Every structure is written in structure tokens, then in C-alpha cells.
Amino acid sequence: MGADYSRAARFAAAALVALKLLLFYSLIGVQSHFVAVWLMSCLLAGLIFSAFRVKWIPAAIHLLISALMFLDLTFSSFFNRYLSVDMIGAADVVGSIGDSVLELIRPIYFLMPADALAIMAMLAAMALRRRRAARAEGEARGIEGAEAAAGPGAMACDAWGGEAADAVADLGQDVADAGADLGQEAADAGADLGQEAADAGAEPGQEAADAGADLGQETAGAEADTGQEAAEADEGADLGQEAADVEAETAATLPQALSFLRPAAARVLPFLRAVARHRAPASAGAIAALIAVVLWNPAQAQTLTAISNQELYAFHVKDALGGLFAGSGGGDGGDFQYLFYADDYAVEKDGPLFGVAEGRNLIVIQVESLQNFVVGLEYNGQEITPNLNRLIGENSVYFDNFYQQVGGGNTSDAEFAVNNSICGVMKSYTYELFQDNVFRGLPVLLSEKGYDTAVFHAHEDRGYWSREGMYPAQGFGRFFGGLELVGGDYEMTEWMGWGLTDSEFFKQTLPMMKSLREPFYSFVITLSNHHPFLMLDHYSFIDLLPEDEGSLVGNYLRSAAYTDYAIGLFIDMLKDDGLYERSVIAVYGDHQGLTMEGDVPSDMRRLLGRDYDFDAMMRVPLIISLPGGADIRQTSHTAGGQIDFMPTMAYLMGFESLDTLYLGHNLLTIREGFAPVQSYMLKGSFFDNDTAFEMSRDGIFANSRAWRLATGESVPLEECRAGYGRAMAVIDASDYILYNDLVAEWGR
Predict the structure, then answer these.
(1) 707 or 184: which carries more pLDDT confidence?
(2) Segment 317-326, tens digit of pLDDT
(3) How far, in Å, CA of 81 to CA of 309, rounded?
(4) Phi and psi at residue 709, in whole multiples of 5°?
(5) CA within 13 Å, CB half, 361
(6) Phi, psi at 686, each rounded to 5°
């Protein structure tokens, strides 16, 4: 009966693990080699469980892996990739985005640890059955202490195959050792006796007794009392001799200054050897060999490459090894000769708008999570962005094919890209990693032209995303940020979502901006339009259709409309104070607000009348307004990204040259635009004037996809190979510049 129960439990556990992995890969979005990836994970999970005789050990490992799967799903729902050890450096910001993280978690994610908990429940039930059976047998035979002889080892194992009996016997014997006559007295005196044995050559018999008692105390808990004195003496003497050998070797090799380590070594090493007895070396070796073949892929087989980039165990082992052995200064850019850089500004500055904004104040507004699809959108008879629409119609250039180019830092990387024309990195976040670098972006270049420079942001924590350190490093003269309650500059007059409402933020920002010396460069960062897009009732301007009430898309429409309202207030305030006519005003979105998770794709398909794909998700607006100048109302369809902002603005402001390292282009003079991306889509993906290319998540170019922006029809992949190489080169160049602080070398 017990064997049948054990077989049923093993079958149930295997089925639960296999079904959980099937669900995980469906939720994470694996498409290429799905079955092979799933089977590989099932095989590795099975090998892990067979690698240990005591099944509590792999059960605990599996629970940790299940927790990692939960985190992977949550991270992927926003960033479309597995969680990497690189992001450990960004862990300090998690507390501040708790509400948004909770919104990303779907109830189905909680099934990830369910099988691990069920397996542990099975183990507990089997241990209880065995304990009861041992007690019943002991009572039948009239033998006292039968339950103790079975011991905790038996409770942990149960009948998981023939190996379990050996494991139970081993652990039972270990417990019996602990009941030797030495008992607690030897355990208490172990450290002193070990030191005396090492220094004075104490007799092996005493050392053996000492180490045997230590092992029994450390490994089995010294709970049982048994009458098997012969077995206790033999096992205690053998293990004690091993401990004595270790003690003697330690005393001979370690300096006297480290003598305090000898007793610890005598205790720990025998304990590790005891644990190793409950591991099956053949299964452990099979796991190592299998992962090694998949990771190193000596034959360069595409199937193995696809598996290693998507399979859970292989990916995280490869990721961990990469983090462990990565160099500290080389980055991912390779040799300097691979640097994709050319000073194109010299040939791109010739155009009819060169210098039209020269000498003006520059006001840049980075709008949180503003996607381009809301600009000009009419919904249920209402304009979502009437103020931005009006700004576009008043002496402005509107770029409607402009894309986010963030790295691991999201919002902060958008700031970095527009100011420095360099992409941020995926390893942690750029502001944290490179505060000691030298930069020559817009803040520095404008300062050299006599501009006063400042940043304005109302997040309550001035140090969030390491802004306090990174703004001065980039050349900003002042940072107006944080709340007065915690030593900042803004008064909390109205809280919504992540902090001070945008309308109140703009009201308080204007007097601070007016305190700057003209001409000035003001970099203004909004906050309210942030996931999960929760609004105060009196700012819910948009009447939603019944099907959009309570949905993320419906919440986003209301939130975007509110931020547009706040921007309209700010523009009116600039006009009232006379700053509007003396300034050039740029407005752009930092990154997407709506991913392709949950109901968003279907809701967006209904809203837009077409599929919601990466081009719609990652396209953000860029509007550059030149009040009071020549009539230049135009819309540019040239593809570009955030690294193109700096050379484009330099052109408008009359820069004769760009005396720095940069990777963007002047979007007002080039014809063929190009925007490489690395976050949400994988590195190597890009957008150009006509095409979107998504690098396959399995790392195989042939499994990628490309489509026409206008029609959505497929594009032959070979047409995208050159663009893929260019996208890789731009991202690698950005990494190389940052990791090697090349801007510091520029002026030398």
C-alpha cells in the first residue's frame, strides 16, 4: 500500500511540474521551439529531483525556482524579457514603484509556486505515514525507541525509489551516533578539545569522540536515544577520524593567526560530507553536462541556441555566469574598432531651419508614459490631447515616427538619451552606473554658450534613479526637485498617483524657472501619467465607453487627457509671463504606458482599428514649437529616436559643430531615419521610415519578423539584415562609450 501511495505521489508531482512549466512558457510568450524548450525544462526538473535521495532538498530548490518564475512573469509583463542579474542594481527603486508592480501581477502568476507547495505537502504526508508505520511496528514488537531509530531522516525521505531506504538508514545511523555516551558534554567541549588536539597532539580516540559528537549534534539534531551502541561507536570513530584528519591538516597549513578557524573546519567539513551522502552524483553530473552542452553549444546548432536563450534553467545559469565573470570596465562594446561612430552633424546641419532658435530659452518637457497614438485621437466624440494638438498647429515641427530608446533605467534613460545622444545600458540603470563619467551633452554645450541650466521634477525623493548625483555629472547647474517635507523644493498641495499632480507641479515650477538667468535651458519632467493611471475624480475629463470603464486602456486615456490639460495650463502661464515668445519648447514622451499584456491588445485593436504591435507601443511623440518665428508648421515622417534629439536641437539652435561623442542624427535634414532599440524588443531590433524589425527572442535571426509600418504586411528578413547589424553596432557603441568613459578622452 505504501509503495502504491509513493508511486502515485511521484506521478502527481511530475505531472504538476510539467503542467506548471507548460503554463509558464505560454504566459512568458515563447514561440520558437516551444516543445523543445518545455521538454528541456521538464528533463532538468526531473534530474534535479533525482539528484538527491532526501527529497526535501530538491523540493526546496524547486520552490526557489518557482519564486524566480513568478518574478520572471511579472518582469516580462512590462519589459518583455526574463529578469536578469543585471537588474539587481536597480532593486533599490522597487519600493517606490510598488503600486505599479502590483498592477502588473496577474492572479494566474500565483500558480507558479503552487506545485512546489503541493510537493512539500506530499512529502510531509508521506513522512507522517512513515512515522506512524514506524510507531505501529515498534509497538507491535515491543521495542522502545523504534520511532527514534527511524528519525528525522525517515520523516524526510519516504519511498521515492530504492535509494530512499539507504538514505533513511544513513540518516538514522547519524541520529544514533548523536545518542552516544559523549552526548551533550562532548558537544559543549568540542571547540576547546579540537584546539587542544591541534596544538598539543591529543590522542585520536578523544578527537574521534569529539568529532563524532559534533557531527551528530550538527547533522541530525541529537534528538534520539538508541541502544545500538556498537553501531554508534563504529560510525562515530570513523567519522571522528575523518574530522581529526581535517583538524590536523588545518593546523599544519593555516597560519597561527587563523587558528580560530580550525574548530569550525572540523565541524563544517564532516557535515558537508554527510550531506553529500544524500546526493546522487550521477544525476548531478547529468544536469551539469546537459546545461554545459546547451550553453556552450560547441556545434553552434541553432536549436540549442534557441533553447539556451529561452529555456528557464539555461537562461538563468548563463545569465548568472555572465554576471559573475563579466569584466568591470570593458562593457559589451568589444574592441574600439567596432565603435559605430561618425561626426555626421557637419554634413547634416545645412538646411532651411538652421539657427532659427538661436539665443532662445530652451524648455524641454519630458512627459511620463506619453504614447503617440493619443495625439490627434478623437474618442467618443472627445479630443484626448486638445492642447498638444493646438501646439502642433502653432509654428511647430511634429515628428510622428519617433521612438523610445530606453535601457534598464526606463524614464531616467530617456532623460539621458535626449541630453547626450547615447543610449543607456541594460545592466542596471545608467544613472547609477556612470555618475563618475564625464559627459558633454546639451547641458554642457549650452552652458558653454552662456545658458543657465536646471532640472525640475516633483518626485518626492530627490535621489530617485540617482538623479542627485547624475544631474551635476551631466552639466546641469541646478536641480529643483523633491518635496519640502523631506528637504526638497515642492510643496505637496495635491497628491495623485505617484505624487504631486502635474497641474500643481507646473504652477510651482514657473516661479523657479523665472529665477534662472536668461537664456536658460529648463528640463521639466512630469509625473502624473504613470502606470496604473489612477485619477482623482475631478480630473477625469473623458467620458469612457462602457466597455472601457475600469480597463487599463480606459484609465490611460483619462490620464493622458489630464496631463494634456496640465501642459495647456503651463503653456498659458508661459504666455502670460512673456516667456513663451522668447523660448523654443519641446515636448516628447519618455516611454510607452501600455504594454501588450492582458486585455490591452484587444482593447487597443478596438480603439485603433488595427493590431497593437511594437511600433504603436514604442512610438512616442516629439513636438518642437518655435513661437513667433517663421511659419514652419510641418509634420516629419522621418524615423528617429531619443538619441536624435540632441543633434536636431543643436541644428535649430545654430550650433556650428557638435564637440562631443554622439550617435544620433539631425532629423530635419536626413531622409532615411533609423531608430535602434534594446528594451521591450530585443537588442538588434529597429524601426526605419517604412519598416519595423523585431529580433527573435531565441536569438536566431531567421526566426525574427519584420513588417511594413503603413500596412502591417510582412517584410522579407533579408531586407533587414543590414539594419540589424547597424542596430547592434549603435547599441554596442553606446555601451562602449559609457563603460570606457570615452567622452572624457574626447577633449584630450
Answers:
(1) 707
(2) 888 887 666 5
(3) 10
(4) -65, -35
(5) 24
(6) -160, 165
Residue 313 burial by Cβ neighbours in a 10 Å radius (0-12, 13-18, 19+) = buried
Q: Which run of H or of E encompasses 641?
A: strand 640-641
First to last CA, the chain: 82
Alpha-carbon distance of 242 to 230, in angstroms, equals 19
Q: Show Cβ contacts of residue 691 under 8 Å, excluding neighbours closer than 6 positions.
A: 706, 707, 708, 709, 715, 719, 720, 723
Nearest residue to 86 (alpha-carbon basis) of 430, 491, 368, 337: 430
CB 455 within 8 A of CB 418: no
Residue with cell 555566469: 321
| Bridge-based pairing state of the strands 378-379 and 382-383 | antiparallel
| DSSP annotation of 54 | S
| pLDDT value, residue 276 | 57
Provide mean pLDDT across the span 679-693: 95
Exposure string of 349-384, with b = 16+ CB inside 10 Å and e = fewer, is beeebbebbeebbbbbbbbbbbbbbbbbbebeeebb
* Paired sense of beta strands 691-694 and 705-708, if any: antiparallel
| Higher pLDDT pick, 722 / 137 | 722
Per-residue pLDDT, 527: 95
**Strand, helix or coil for residue 487:** coil
Quote the pTM value: 0.76
Instruction: State the alpha helices, DSSP H only, in 80-182.
Output: 98-104, 114-141, 146-157, 163-178
Run of H or E including 694: strand 691-694
Q: What are phi and psi of 478, to 5 degrees?
A: -140, 155
Name the residues annotated as catalytic: 411
Say whether pLDDT at 147 is over 50.
Answer: no
Proportion of the chain above pLDDT 70, given as a percent: 74
Joined together, the cell numbers standing for residue 675 give 531608430
* C-alpha cell of residue 118: 503541493
Work out the pLDDT band at 673, boundaries 50, 70, 90.
very high
**SS3 annotation, 409-461:** CCHHHHHHHHHHCCCCCCCCCHHHHCCCCCCCCHHHHHHCCCCEEEEEECCCC
Instruction: Determine the Cα–Cα distance for residues 733 and 208; give it in Å rounded to an integer.
Output: 63
pLDDT in tens, 42-59: 988 988 888 888 888 889
Average pLDDT value for the chain: 81
Higher pLDDT, 498 or 346: 346
pLDDT at 355 over 70: yes
Q: Which three cell numbers stand for residue 406?
A: 530606453
Give the pLDDT of residue 95.
54
The whole-number pLDDT of residue 209 equals 36
Q: Confirm if 443 and 473 have CB atoms less than 8 A apart.
A: no
CA distance 237 to 205: 8
Grid coordinates representing 52? Answer: 538527491
How high is the pLDDT of residue 76? 82
Averaged pLDDT for residues 61-74? 91
Q: To which H or E segment does residue 310 belong?
A: helix 302-310
464 pLDDT band (50/70/90 cuts)?
A: confident
Are the C-beta atoms of 185 and 139 separated by less than 8 Å?
no
Half-sphere exposure of 73 (CA within 13 A, CB side): 24
Q: How confident is the model at residue 98 (pLDDT cuts 50, 70, 90)?
A: low
- Position 639, amino acid: A
> CA-to-CA distance for 1 and 303, rounded, in angstroms?
44
Residues 730, 735, 741, 743, Cα dihedral to 10°: 20
Which residues in 465-600 belong to E strands, given as ranges?
Answer: 478-481, 495-496, 499-500, 520-525, 583-589
The residues, ordered by sequence, that sit 6+ positions from 590 with a Cβ below 8 Å of its Cβ are 366, 367, 368, 369, 370, 404, 406, 410, 411, 414, 415, 620
Average pLDDT rounded to a whole number, residues 251-269:
55
